[in-house]
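User: I'm new to structure prediction. If I give you an amino acid sequence, what do you actually give back? Let's try with this one:
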Amino acid sequence: MNRHILGILSAASLMASTAIAGAQSGIELSPALQAAEGAQTQTLQPSKKESFVIGLSNISVVNTWRVQMIEEAKYEAKQHSEIKEMVVTDAGGDTNKQVADIEDLLARGVDALLVAPGSEVALNGVLDKAYASGIPVVIFSSDAGSKDYTVKILGDDVDFGRAGAEFLAKTLGGKGNIIGIRGISGNSIDNDRWKGVEEVLKNYPDIKIIDTAFGDWAYDKGKRVCESLLTAHPDLNGIWSSGGAMTQACAEVLNENGLPLVPMTGEGNNGFLRIWQEMDLTSVAPQYPTWFGQQAVIAALRVLKGEPVAKDYLLRPAPITKDEISKYYNADLSDAYWVGSSLPEETLKTIYAK
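Assistant: Good question. You get back a string of structure tokens that encode the predicted 3D arrangement of the chain. For your 354 residues, that looks like this:
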């Protein structure tokens, strides 16, 4: 098992993974994924084909997390001789384009459809159509509201939001003014993370969210957003951030302008972990690993082979704390690397060489 995944697996999970790998076909889902509460296990009729064309519809590669996620999906597809081709489309952040991309993939006759949605509602019609056509539909990394799908693989984003908000609330002693740096407007990940923040802060009436902005989970846009918000609110007490690259940008803006390094929430991103150490930040880093792409490919292949899968999977890894940074930070890789990758070391060094 790739060493980069180890940080989010318990010892029991690792033992289970070893046993599964030795006993079965090599297309097992990660034991870090748990079937969601009440999720049904299903075994569908295996495909009669010996090789498959997989379609993957991605909303965008607007940030480095999404770039790595797609690289993991592509790499995994190449590990299975049964996958003759994987066709990847990118909608450039336009949900109308993503609908058209899915229509095109269906017209090509793909054997399974993987979708990383850009909206909880905009894709529902075309996803219903895809499912009705009889092909497996795997929704991963972010959610869509369609009830018709084969497998869904998500992180617990409400829990992600809660973890950061609870850390801030306790660190600030239940009082203070904070800003929120959110992800992509309308995306289920952003909606759910913010829901977790609001749930926590209802219990802390003396903590005020004085401003918010969307940074698309990207370093460059995050830096512009932080410059604007910190200019307007130089006396803030804390920063809740939906993503590590944006937190890195905010910390750098504070430092560049001689402002106090207030408590802030981060994420399992190599650049953030680096500046967390270098600037001695007060922070915590919830995790959202990029191997959702890899797991979506494996789930589709299991369905096509008639292997049992749950309808819904959920990932809820523990946040990284300050004393654990050395377990995750990789000094040999650039800031763009996101920890918890399924990619082998040599591939990571090729992509993220300094």
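You can read the tokens as a compact description of the fold. Here is one thing that stands out. Residues 134 and 332 are 45 Å apart (CA to CA).
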